[in-house]
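Hi R.,

As promised on Friday, here is the backbone we talked about, encoded as structure tokens. Could you run it through your design pipeline when you get a chance and send me back a sequence?
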């Protein structure tokens, strides 16, 4: 799941925290990060 999110959205767009890491139960907390504002173009 982590690698799919990273490939589709980039690593800067979410945080990923393991709550339970198996082997029977796997739970994670995924949170959307604030969007980065594009740098102002200088002319």
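Update: got your reply. Pasting your designed sequence below so it's all in one thread:
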């Amino acid at each position: 799941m982590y690698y799919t999110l990273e490939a589709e959205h980039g690593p800067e767009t979410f945080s990923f925290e393991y709550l339970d890491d198996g082997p029977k139960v796997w739970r994670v907390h995924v949170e959307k990060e604030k969007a980065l504002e594009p740098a102002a173009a200088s002319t």
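One thing I noticed while checking it: Helices lie at 2-9.

Thanks again,
M.
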